[in-house]
Amino acid sequence: MATIKINWSGPRVKARTNAALFAGLRKGVSFARTQIVRRISVSSRVGNSGARHPKKGARKPMRFQHSKPGQPPRRDTGKLAQSIFGSQSKSLMMGRVGTTLKYGAFLEVGTRPHTIMPKRKKMLAFGAGGKWVFARRVEHPGTAKRPYLLSTVRMYRTQINAIIISTARALMRV
User: Distance between CA 85 and CA 76 in Å, rounded?
Assistant: First the structure.
């Protein structure tokens, strides 16, 4: 009688495949994050001179050229670009790209008309038309959406998928 020995390595193959896919996912998320930061890194400043806030003897306020509705937001301070993060979940095999700033969501989906009131001071101060304006309250007309997260991921979807698959295939061949 002949003895047949079968060596089943299913769990090892599954673990290796998952590790390769996770490495591809990490590269894909990193690529998506880089593309988002690139799209929102166009400067909005028109001139270099000017002050950000009114102070005693301050220069005229800076002038900005904001992005058009439907276009990604332009860089003002750079905080939005710095706040873009990418994360992966090994258990769910899922990647996520987003921002930690509250106003990032407002830029992505827009806002309805609302009232702006000062929180710590008696008056609001802001630059408009090259002059300082002071007001106790402002009726804001709302903001049109300036999508930068979902639109970028959709724009680069095929490249992101290709990065994930090519990385996983390269690691599986080794």
Answer: 19
- pLDDT digit string, tens, across residues 53-75: 666 666 666 667 778 888 899 88
As given in the structure block, the two tokens for residue 131 are 């002059």
User: From CA 59, how far away is CA 111, in angstroms rounded?
Assistant: 31
Q: What is the pTM for the complete model shown?
A: 0.76
**Residue 152 CB partners (closer than 8 Å, separation 6+):** 32, 35, 36, 39, 72
- Give the residue among 43, 45, 41 at the shortest CA–CA distance from 64: 45
- Name the band, by pLDDT with cuts 50, 70 and 90, for residue 38: very high
What are the tokens at 127?
């630059």
Q: Which of 7-11, 23-27, 134-138 has the lowest mean pLDDT?
A: 7-11
**Per the structure block, which two tokens stand in for 27?**
């590269």
Beta carbons of 123 and 134 less than 8 angstroms apart: yes
CA 57 to chain centre: 37
State how far the alpha carbon of 24 is from the alpha carbons of 20, 35, 51, 62, 64, in Å: 6, 17, 45, 43, 39
Whether pLDDT at 111 is above 70: yes
Position 85, amino acid: F
Closest CA relative to residue 146, chosen from 112, 99, 104, 113:
104
